[in-house]
Amino acid sequence: MKKKQSANMKDVAALSQVSIATVSRFLNNDLSRMSEETAKRVKDAIDKLNYVPNSAARQMVTKSSKMIAVVVANIDDYFSTELFKGISSILESTGYIGVLFDTDTNQKREIQLMDSVNSQSFDGLIFQPLTSDMSLIENEIRREIPIVIVDREIELSPWPQVITNNYEAARNAMLKFQTKGYKHVIILSSEINIASTRRERYQGIKSVANNVDVIEISEKSHNHKDIHKEIVSLIKKSDEKTLIFAIKERWLLEFIPGLMTDGYIDDMNVTATGFSDTDLARAIEPKAELIEQNPFLMGASSAEVMMDLLNDDDAKKIPSKLIIPAKLK
Amino acid sequence: MKKKQSANMKDVAALSQVSIATVSRFLNNDLSRMSEETAKRVKDAIDKLNYVPNSAARQMVTKSSKMIAVVVANIDDYFSTELFKGISSILESTGYIGVLFDTDTNQKREIQLMDSVNSQSFDGLIFQPLTSDMSLIENEIRREIPIVIVDREIELSPWPQVITNNYEAARNAMLKFQTKGYKHVIILSSEINIASTRRERYQGIKSVANNVDVIEISEKSHNHKDIHKEIVSLIKKSDEKTLIFAIKERWLLEFIPGLMTDGYIDDMNVTATGFSDTDLARAIEPKAELIEQNPFLMGASSAEVMMDLLNDDDAKKIPSKLIIPAKLK
Fold first, then answer.
1. pLDDT digits over A212-242, tens only?
2. How many helices (H) and strands (E) does chain B have?
3. Which CATH class is domain A67-164+296-328?
4. ipTM score above 0.90
5. Which of A160, B134, B146, B183 has the fewest Cβ atoms within 10 Å of its own Cβ atom?
6. Does CATH place domain B166-292 in 3.30.70.580?
7. Contacts of residue A261 in chain B, CB cutoff 8 Å?
């Protein structure tokens, strides 16, 4: 496909009767040294000539693309998409754009994506890493751009982190259900060990409950019927009251409705809870007590931290860790 | 945040004892004119110096960022996220990266995003537009890059389109349920008129059924309880067998489980169907007959068309319209 021969900065300057420097300042949103009237003339000329600034050339000058790279674990989870919605809500108001990279819960792919983030001119990176392995992450991140880590906690992170209180939230919920007599727990999770969030939630539950069954479900491929059967048989085998505890919303959404319609969840001997990232889970289980996270707020907060980093060279006031608590409701 | 003084191409050339031209060819993946051994020397030098190629400078040379912009309607819908998963599955294998822009079902935002796509160096654009208004879209798209339109059909589109058979799929499903005696239909949809897909599905249903109630649900904010009540009262007021027809998966996921657990959906006098984009809907309604779309395949197909456009200057063999049919299952 051939590129159109398009107008250049000189043409815009000529038509709007200003210097190229003025056009350049206009393109870089530096309107301090020109009148509104001049700015309007330049804008009209750009529209008239259908001029598209060459971002490559522009970036050489401004070193700014006004784009923030957002690398998330898996856009099949509402957590990741709501996180991005929250980030965008803040970026929008500041003239920045969030662009989303999806790791698809694949470590190889995360490395590939970070390569391309490193080699492109993004102004910042908001990163929900798959791993908490600092050495691995340090290897992935080569660029000296502002970075905010979100959701997955990293030991000794040199970057600000926005996380939730996974251990406490899971422990407190478990304590509450235990006082209601739920002693047997069936945990629904993806592979627990790869994500700090799941490890902490699992440990929070284990710190209270002794009779715990765990079903780890593959995000890539799993047989819904088989998992359903496995849950049912675990319910039946137990002579204690059973709590089904989804430490990932997706499994709450996928398995609880079926168990409800089949009558296994009577909220007497068997009930369900889990971490919930959206109103959808609430809508499907109106009666259930759920641990509500706020990924939208977590996203908005990490975008605010990013803005502070971008606007403040030595970033004094930036908190190293921001905790957005999840609550049982 | 200050940028580290980083190595440049000259340093890499010196350390690897090759010409700058060779380093440049290496960076542009043009390995035809160097030995494996040379390529390895350059790679080692890049790693040793922790050299990050300046993409801006590089893009001046290669005019390629190896990034494809993907602008979708709303990542809260599995349709949009599965679409992107399908696109990425193809791009990955070709060394391209898909970057996701979320319109958040907001026309103003779509225009803002397209501005930034226009001014950045993307190699191509895969676009799920909110509107089917060609004049509006022509205004948004300024860059002469390869473009593929997906999901929302545009009249007289100058760009290849990958769509589904919305009218036929909805009509055929409605015919099938009518023969089973379902004469009263409650349509659950977002605002119908803004999206060609919904218009076509609505018309497909209307072409068969006469007794049709429509509930348009706001994607931005709606009261779940009120909508639930509205559906129930429409079920009760009808003396004919009622079909609840969700022409958007999100409303199927949000409202059908509640109606099932409250016993309104008995699959005798009241049943539910809808367009489904994922296995999740199937998992929640194992017994329901759903119209299965294949957004993953639609994404993969649009990425394949994009690759053809990128690899073939006059793009002869490219189909102007590719239809991925949805089927009642």
1. 999 999 988 889 999 999 999 999 999 999 9
2. 13, 12
3. alpha beta
4. no
5. B134
6. no
7. 257, 260-261
